[in-house]
Design goal:
A five-stranded antiparallel β-sheet has the order 6-7-8-5-9, covered by helices on one side. A three-stranded antiparallel β-sheet has the order 1-2-3, with no helix packed on it. Strands 4-11-10 form a three-stranded mixed β-sheet, covered by helices on one side. It is elongated, with a radius of gyration of 20 Å. By secondary structure, the protein is an alpha+beta fold. It is built from four helices and eleven strands; from the N terminus they run H-E-E-E-E-H-E-E-E-E-H-E-E-E-H.
Length: 217
Amino acid sequence: NPRLLKALSIALENSGVSIFKHTEVQVITSSRGDRIEGLRTTRGRFVAGSVVVAAGAWSGTLLEGFSYKPEIIPVRGQMIVYRTPPGFVQHLLLKQDCYIIPRRDGHLLVGSTVEYVGFDKSTTEEARRTLEAGARQIIPGLANHRVVEQWAGLRPGAPQAIPFIGPHPDIKNLYLNSGHFRNGLAAGPASARLLADFVLGRTPILPPEPFAWDRGL
């Protein structure tokens, strides 16, 4: 996924898209009650014809104060990485809640925890031990190899693990694409297509009702 994101960034820049890194969005501003004017950021003010909020676990925070605020919460996931000889594992392995993903260079990604601890991205020894134990149940030989990295990320959780994709019910040019939990990478292309259909006024690629902001209200 880091390589895919890098390739996507290069493709966008080659297509003339401006990317502003390390720029925090502070406030989504409105000129009238039913339209968004733009954004106020740490780099200044941006005026926009349409605004798409796709800020992962932070999407709900950006939309504080708006009607129909989506229920998106951070869910911490911790992972560890083993260093093994290339070819030591050649297939993705899964047992219960533990999975192992091999890389060509021999590194094995082991994941992952599901923790409701707010916006805390710290790692814990308890999670490390749990992941190591799960990995060794699948591959006992990992006892002879060492963990070289551990990290944590925040998934955007949503009710029933169904993302929010589409326009705000009342604000005509405000859109949301967030809440994918563990499936952001896998569902990314279809989610982007559905969101683009809304923004461009096209017929949605699939029924949009399950992904609506105000579903269940």
